Amino acid sequence: MNLDPKKTALLTLDLQKGIFEMAPEAAIVLAPAAKAVEFARQKGFLLIHIGLGFSKGYPEIPEVSRFSMFREKGLMLKGSPSAEFHPKVFNAGDFVVYKQRVSAFTENELLMILRSRKIENLVMFGISTSGIALSTLSQASDLDFKCTILKDGCADLDQEAHRVLTEKIFPRQAAVMTVNEYIAQQSQ
Asked: Rounded distance, CA 184 to CA 188, Å?
């Protein structure tokens, strides 16, 4: 199924320098991710980079939180090197939406942007498969978006979790394919 570029957005999920520093093995996604981003640019899809971005002093993080490690390590502050998106997928001037929790839709303007542009289709990938990819797909599906997950653009510290999600769970809510399969399908 060819996706209408006017109704399609490609979301990169947490492809930030600080994330790659914490999980260097995830760099395996960079080549397919860069290929998917370049294809989206050529097709005229709305390209949005979603990532963690906290304010100075980390007011978004409560005293006890799974996100406390970012505050303790001084990571993912908006404008800091750790919050920058990887240069293999990001160009100056690209559209960025920050979040302060796991899902790309949490407490930000993403849904408003997608609705205002009449986006119906979401193509997404990122780090981690069992984190932002799972949470974002679940919420996007509940919001009635037609979703595609590019599995070789996703990585997880737990390879078995990645396999189970991409082979058994994600197909219930999305088309799941590799970047090359996706490009071939959209080029027909």
From this structure: 7
